């Protein structure tokens, strides 16, 4: 039984193919429940996001996992195999750690993937198809991701517009829990801005959008984290003064926030500073706004230069993170080997105990029969020693007969090391 990681991602497959093999949580829950009754493939975790679908499984071979992925999605195996990557054992562990740490993401260092992998594990556990061994591998991957996050800078720099706006707000204002944010337009870009700022703990988010339906959709997505108010687009100007941070991205051909309206808003705010971010092309905010005292105006180009610089920092940090992941993989594999050796050692000890009991019983019978106690004990010690040394003696003879002498030399050196350690007098406490 080996540990496999098999799947497709943004690097190996088109959007169309990724859509074909993607799973939503409801369908995946049903599939995993069915898989619990499968004889050969019932120890697995499936990670499915917009950029990847991966199966992590304990299985006899990778083809078994590949056929499952193809069949459950009604795809020809040959077609899928051209786009699938496969990793086994140590390489699979390394891949999982890199995924959980954000090192394999489209956006290097993005934090969402860790939560997605944790959710995938929870779904598999609910379906009762995760062995203790597989669970331990995932838990160690989460530990690795935490180490990468806390000990490297791979995720500490903003590399998306939405996140960059949120970070900018934290730089300008020291207390995010007192901020009121306005997003002008509720499209994809501003939705990300709103979500990031909500996560950072701002006090309130005002959503100003032409479509009430779209505004309500965004409001529902963030309402569990922050107070939300929807403002009609026609009332944008008169509500500007309420916002400490304004992010605008309408897609309009004309400016929607005028110089005179911002000037009025500043006066109403008693000239308390405002951060205004214009993510639109063409621009939403009159550039002259930048001349007003107390207004910080940033455009797409300003943020892009920050993002490019931060991405370079992330790439540099990723080198350090990769080294850390490799070290942690080695640690886990070593731990697994020791654990596997433990069962063998236990069998060896049980064998020794059986021999001890057998020889002791035989010796006691001889003593009860009247034989000389010292002679019986000497014979007991000799016979027990011979039986206990017999397996290792066989191994040494077989190693000595090998064409490659390195195995015998290694065994000999290790045994000599053990003898040396035993000869050393123990320090008195």
Please explain how this structure is put together.
With 429 residues, the protein is of the alpha/beta class. It folds into three domains: 2-157, 2-Layer Sandwich (Beta Polymerase, domain 2); 161-302, 3-Layer(aba) Sandwich (Rossmann fold); 338-420, no CATH class. The protein contains 15 helices and ten strands. Strands 7-6-5-8-9-10 form a six-stranded parallel β-sheet. The radius of gyration is 33 Å and the shape is elongated. The model has no long low-confidence stretch (mean pLDDT 89).
Overview features:
single chain; 429 residues; alpha/beta; Beta Polymerase, domain 2; Rossmann fold; 3 domains; six-stranded parallel beta sheet; four-stranded antiparallel beta sheet; 15 helices; 10 strands; 57% helix; elongated
Tell me the layout of helices and strands.
Blueprint lengths: L1 E8 L5 H7 L3 H11 L8 E5 L3 E8 L2 H11 L4 H5 L3 E4 L1 H11 L11 H15 L5 H20 L9 H12 L7 E5 L3 H12 L4 E6 L2 H11 L4 E6 L3 H4 L5 E4 L10 H10 L5 E5 L16 E5 H69 L4 H29 L4 H18 L6
Parallel strand pairs: 5-6, 5-8, 6-7, 8-9, 9-10
Antiparallel strand pairs: 1-3, 1-4, 2-3
Cα Rg: 33 Å
Overall domain count: 3
The end-to-end distance, rounded to whole angstroms, is 47 Å
Secondary-structure content class: alpha/beta
> What best-fitting shape do the alpha-carbon axes yield?
elongated
Highest-level CATH class of the largest domain: Alpha Beta
Helix content: 55-70%
Query: What is the N-to-C order of secondary-structure elements (H for helix, E for strand)?
Result: EHHEEHHEHHHHEHEHEHEHEEHHH
CATH architecture of the largest domain, please? 2-Layer Sandwich
Spatial sequence of strands, sheet with the most strands:
7-6-5-8-9-10
> Which parts are unreliable, with pLDDT below 50 for 5 consecutive residues or more?
none
Quote the beta fraction.
5-15%
Overall average pLDDT = 89
| CATH fold topology of the largest domain | Beta Polymerase, domain 2
Characterize the largest beta sheet: strand count, sense, and whether it forms a barrel. 6 strands, parallel
